[in-house]
Amino acid sequence: MNYRIFPPEEMIEAAIELPLSKSISNRALIINALTADAKPIAKVAHCDDTDVMVEALSSQSSDVNIGAAGTAMRFLTAYFSVQEGREVVLDGSERMRQRPIKALVDALRDCGASIEYLGEEGFPPLKILGRKLQGGDVALPASISSQYISALLMIAPLMAQGLRLTLEGEIMSRPYILMTLEMMRRQGVESEFDDNIITIAPSEYRYADIDVEADWSAASYWYEIAALSTGMVSLKGLQSPSLQGDSKIAGYFEHLGINTQFSDEEVVLEPSPEQDARLELDMSEQPDLVQALAVTCCMLRIPFRFTGVETLRIKETDRLEALRVELDKLSFDLSIEGDNAIAWYGGQHPIFEQPSIDTYKDHRMAMAFAPVALYLPGVIINDVEVVSKSYPDFWEHLAQTGFVIVDADAEIPEDTEMAE
Q1: Are residues 236 and 155 in the same domain?
Q2: Distance in angstroms (rounded) separating the CA atoms of residues 199 and 161
Q3: Can you tell me the mean pLDDT for 194-223?
Q4: Does 387 share its domain with 258?
Q5: pLDDT higher at 197 or 313
Q6: Are residues 10 and 76 in the same domain?
Q7: Helix, strand or coil, per DSSP, at residue 316
Q8: 206 within some domain
Q9: Is 412 a member of any domain?
Q10: Strand partners, 337
Q11: In angstroms, rounded to a whole number, what is the distance separating the alpha carbons of residues 87 and 156?
Q12: Which of 80, 146, 381, 394 would be 176's cystine partner, CB 3.0–4.6 Å?
């Protein structure tokens, strides 16, 4: 389904109950599954990514398909590798079969895992025969997705020799690695992280209650709405300090005219007259925030350059190219500089038709472009169902805030202004 979106008629005053963090939820589910005598986790995120993880961990089938859930593919590859005597074929969507898994498989094989490619070398589907892994010294490129690293770390306590993992080069997405190690610590597994070496001794997880925070990544779209509307937005369930590196969104949006007020009950986003004339950020530790920040900057006409974006090439889509193409529809001339940077230096061109934004089966594309309706009433967002991957209630929350959301093929509501 495609939606046509119109802005609220009144000043925005929104109070939003954010979804729970899928990053924390997925780690919690794996750690809990590796813990003897564990109890079910009271509450985890309810979205596609965690739903497939819950189903995979509870299934006794030898065929596990995780669809488009990249986190599940990486984490379950490691998890099934240590399920002694169990044979599993792990597969996913057509896009998942194009997303590389070789670095993780090589590292697991170095630990003693039995994994076979059933299709193209280096890509799913995988045939995994679970066994006791020896572990020991293993190396991974530090620039790869943190999910490969976290997948290895979470099974490390079960390895006969533990794990001494060397990350070669500059570490990307460090906060997600720290999140994993802290969640492991809370379940009784200690680690050492010195320079680029992480050491985990053989040990056992101990059961403890797990409290899953609200999702700071989901909050980024409400920061975007606040910045483009100068309305008042309050968000429930966020924690500060947080396990999530994406909590830095609060600091980033200070440059874009939004201050954040924290309390025990909520986080309040308040408009500020202070905006930077230009924004330059290293996004290597928060790549999932790039889409919301890029769209906000363009709509506010604030030139930007974001570096550290290499991992965006292999997400649900090539997010760098998707941003370039879709912002071009809104008149903005973006530059992709190698794989490391994306920028807008102020260049624009005329547009002659109402924009229709493609989402590329990527939830973050849909949510990052929806607030454009505040500047271009009637903007169309295609394939809106993609938000179910991380934030199934997004459109409902948008409507509760006063946005008018209609089927793109339906008749335009009376007295609704279209963008010229």
Answers
A1: no
A2: 11
A3: 95
A4: yes
A5: 197
A6: no
A7: coil
A8: no
A9: no
A10: 341
A11: 20
A12: 146
Active site residue 288: yes
Alpha carbon distance 103, 139 (integer Å):
10
Q: Is residue 205 part of a domain?
A: no
Whole-angstrom Cα distance, residue 17 to residue 149? 31
pLDDT digits (tens, 9 = 90+) for 380-400: 999 999 999 999 999 999 999
8 Å CB contact between 246 and 272: no
pLDDT grade, residue 413 (50/70/90)? low
**The predicted structure's pLDDT at residue 420:** 43
Taking the CA atoms of residue 372, residue 376, residue 381 and residue 387 in that order, the dihedral angle to the nearest 10 degrees is 20
The token pair at 75 is: 């984490």
Domain final position from 145, 178, 200:
200
Could you tell me if 243 and 317 lie in one domain?
A: yes
Dist CA 296 CA 319 (whole Å) = 16
Q: Are residues 279 and 175 in the same domain?
A: no
Quick one: 156 and 281 in the same domain?
Answer: no
Structure-token pair, residue 257: 């005219």
Residue 239 within a domain: yes
Between 56-60, 175-179, 414-418, the lowest mean confidence (pLDDT) is in 414-418
Predicted confidence at residue 339, as pLDDT, reads 83
Q: Where are the beta strands (DSSP E) in 276-397?
A: 279-282, 304-307, 332-337, 341-348, 356-357, 379-381
Q: What does DSSP say about strands 13-17 and 232-236: parallel, antiparallel, or unpaired?
A: parallel
Structure tokens at 22: 């899928």
Domain that includes residue 55, residue range: 22-200
Query: Residue with structure tokens 């500020």?
Result: 272
SS3 string of 134-197?
A: CCEEEEEECCCCHHHHHHHHHHHHHCCCCEEEEEECCCCCHHHHHHHHHHHHHCCCCCEEECCE
pLDDT at residue 418 is higher than 70: no
Name 356's bridge partners: 380
Residue in 51, 246, 288, 362 annotated catalytic: 288
- Report how many domains make up the chain: 2
Per-residue model confidence as pLDDT tens digits over 122-152:
999 999 999 999 999 999 998 888 899 999 9
Specify the CATH number for the domain of residue 75: 3.65.10.10
Confidence band of 312 (pLDDT split at 50, 70, 90)? confident
